[in-house]
Amino acid sequence: MLEYLFTNKNVEKILMYLHLHQKANATELSRSFNSSLDPIQKTLRKLEEGGLLVSFLEGRTRVFQWNPRYPFLPEIQALAEKAYTFLPIHIQETYYQSMKRKRPRKTLKPL
After folding, report:
1. Furthest C-alpha separation in the chain
2. Prediction pTM value
């Protein structure tokens, strides 16, 4: 939907994912969208160089999130939210609302 505006379908996916989850790393994104890691990393780097995203390290993992100082951030977030609402439900459930655990369950924790 937005790929024609951004000329890159990965930008659209990343913006909508960040709209829902607030932060993400490249591996998490590539697994969520069943795509290869390299194009996702390049797109994240490009968005960071443009100032839309900022990154930081959590352990050894580089995590990306919205740059609160970006001048057009509210407009970009509103655009991502609007585009997400127009996605078919099966795409929303498949790619954006995965309920997979991100870390192992604590030992001896009851189910």
Report:
1. 50
2. 0.81
